[in-house]
Amino acid sequence: MSSLSTAHVLVEALPYIRRFAGKTVVVKFGGNAIAGTSDHDALSLFAEDIVLMHTVGIRPVVVHGGGPQINDMLTRLNIESSFSNGLRVTDAATMEVVQMVLNGQVNPQIVSAINTHGNVAVGLSGEDGRTLQCVARDASLGFVGDIERVRTHVIEGLLADGLVPVLSTVGVDVHGQPYNVNADTAAGAIAEALSAEKIIYLTDIAGLRKDIDDASSLIQRISVMDLGALIADGTISGGMIPKIESCMQAVKGGVKSAHILDGRIAHVLLLELFTDQGVGTMITGVN
């Protein structure tokens, strides 16, 4: 890139840096994005983006899943796994694996990657300080939790100290029983509770498509009302439903916009936040 091109990039980014300085942005980093294969280290570039956001005054909060990593561990331990409407059926043995992988493997991996570029990340679980207070969703799902309350004091304390919270989505009930919480749903609830400016979902798809098999049908911007219609007519189905429903709930709850991006693209966060064109799909309250 020439010096002039670099200058143009900086000039384009400046108004967005000013607009988002001091604002909270929740970033859900999906297990599929972490496990995605590409010609670059997706996790390292993600960490660079988070540190740059922090450096220019944005307050990032990272919420992560770990579905592929949990699947791998369950397979290694010969524990069968099943899903119902995009949610993992979680018995006691599976719950132990979820805790082990999310709290002991994926969370430290993300924290370490961020701290390689700037010593600002702190890992925590939704169990810590009962941040994600849950109730059981349905007996048939086992230890799958619905979020009853997001207790934001731990997250807000870290943000006030100039740190980046990295949260795994293991919740807990009032009796101390841990629950497996859908990471998309958790991220949306956290963004809503924090009155975040944006929630950004990084996954292994480029965004929403009108036709899942046609890359040219990417939906760049859509309202909550129109999203509801896509769910009703079956365009959005399966594992995408919890993600879309959490986007809709967050925007209805006051988050300015929700974004679905391909986390395997180099510096996708910066492209979405700091360029005029952006990438992926943006969901807003109005058309």
Question: Which keywords apply here?
Answer:
two-stranded antiparallel ribbon; Carbamate kinase; 287 residues; 8-stranded mixed beta sheet; 42% helix; alpha/beta
Description:
The protein has a single domain (3-284), classed as Carbamate kinase. It is an alpha/beta fold and 287 residues long. A hairpin with a 2-residue loop joins strand 3 (83-84) and strand 4 (87-88). It is built from ten helices and 14 strands. The strands form four sheets. An eight-stranded mixed beta sheet has the order 5-8-2-1-11-13-14-12, with helices on both faces. Strands 3-4 form a two-stranded antiparallel ribbon.
Condensed summary:
The chain is an alpha/beta fold and about 290 residues long. The chain has 10 helices and 14 strands.
Please write out the topology.
Layout: H1 3-20, E1 24-29, H2 31-35, H3 42-55, E2 59-64, H4 67-76, E3 83-84, E4 87-88, H5 92-117, E5 121-125, E6 132-136, E7 145-150, H6 153-160, E8 164-168, E9 170-172, E10 178-180, H7 183-193, E11 198-203, E12 221-223, H8 224-232, H9 240-252, E13 257-262, H10 268-274, E14 281-284
Parallel strand pairs: 1-2, 1-11, 2-8, 5-8, 11-13, 12-14
Antiparallel strand pairs: 3-4, 6-7, 9-10, 13-14
The largest β sheet comes out as: 8 strands, mixed
**Rounded average pLDDT:** 89
Number of domains: 1
N-end to C-end Cα span? 36 Å
